[in-house]
UniProtKB/TrEMBL annotation:
Keywords assigned: Pyridoxal phosphate
Coiled-coil region(s): none
Protein name: Pyridoxal phosphate homeostasis protein
GO MF entry, a single one: pyridoxal phosphate binding
Keyword match Nucleotide-binding: no
InterPro entries per record: Ala_racemase_N (IPR001608), PLP-binding_barrel (IPR029066), PyrdxlP_homeostasis (IPR011078)
Annotated positions of the N6-(pyridoxal phosphate)lysine modification: K51
Role summary: Pyridoxal 5'-phosphate (PLP)-binding protein, which is involved in PLP homeostasis.
UniProt cross-references to CDD domains, sorted A to Z: PLPDE_III_YBL036c_like
All residue ranges annotated as the Alanine racemase N-terminal domain in the record: 43-238
Cofactor(s) essential for the protein: pyridoxal 5'-phosphate
Length: 243
């Protein structure tokens, strides 16, 4: 990553200052969105999605007080989590998860946002129970039937939620969704809020609503999101690190 696009890398101090400024801007956006929605900003947890950025950035963010880190690929997340094992971080796995990666992910992730099928529940449960770990799991809900970016349909949520709640080593946290590409995110997040309200009738503690990325966090907060997954607005453009 470079400050000016000329290719000269930032020093650690420059990068820390850049991240601190982005974080302050982001906190301002979150505070404004919470004020507009009549919500307390303390209800909203910020997850820094650090995919494609180095472990050194995770370390700098931890130094700035962030405790929640998100990754979407096991191959990248596993070594990064290992490099940062000395830091007091909670690791969120937010990407699509193949069943054969469940065991690996269960070894370092604290929260898995992308549980969207029964086989994954079984695989994560087996792995967590074997490692003596407890994994908080969110059911990923598809808000656009036409797309195939992962996620269970709203109708599939109750059975998946029951399966997670009853599985050894797993704890049901709530729901996650990604807004449909190229559409107004607001109706999609409203739908997610309705699915969450329905879920909480049977699982009152499953209060997490993981929604909202760099481009749509205001709409997500307006619709009750409890967890934001923010990459670009905090760390910068992901293409910038391609050399
Ligand atoms: C990359 C990613 C994010 C962060 O997206 P930005 O638009 O960069 O904030 C959030 N959620 C998931 C599932 C992601 O893969």
């Amino acid at each position: 990553m470079t400050a000016d696009g000329t290719g000269s890398p930032l020093t650690p101090d420059e990068r820390r200052a850049e991240l601190a400024e982005s974080l302050a801007d982001l906190r301002g956006r979150i505070a404004a969105a919470c004020a507009a929605a009549g919500r307390d900003a303390a209800e909203v947890t910020l997850i820094a999605v650090t995919k494609t950025f180095p472990a050194s950035d995770v370390r700098l963010l931890a130094g700035l007080g962030l405790t929640e880190v998100g990754e979407n690929r096991d191959q990248e997340a596993r070594p990064k989590a290992a490099e940062c094992a000395d830091l007091p971080l909670t690791w969120h796995f937010v990407g699509r998860l193949q069943t054969n990666k469940a065991r690996a992910v269960a070894s370092y992730a604290d929260v898995v946002h992308s549980v969207d099928r029964a086989r994954l529940v079984t695989a994560l449960s087996d792995a967590a129970a074997r490692d003596g770990r407890t994994l908080r799991c969110l059911v990923q809900v598809s808000l656009d039937e036409a797309e195939h970016r992962g996620g269970a349909s709203p109708a599939e949520v109750p059975a998946l939620a029951d399966a997670i709640a009853g599985a050894a080593g797993l704890r049901l946290g709530g729901l996650m969704a990604v807004a449909p590409l190229g559409a107004d995110p607001l109706p999609a997040f409203e739908r997610l809020a309705a699915v969450s309200a329905e879920l909480r009738r049977n699982h009152p503690d499953a209060r997490i609503v993981s929604a909202g990325m760099s481009g749509d966090l205001e709409q997500a907060i307006a619709c009750g999101a409890t967890h934001l997954r923010i990459g670009t607005a905090l760390l910068g453009g992901r293409r910038a690190i391609v050399r």
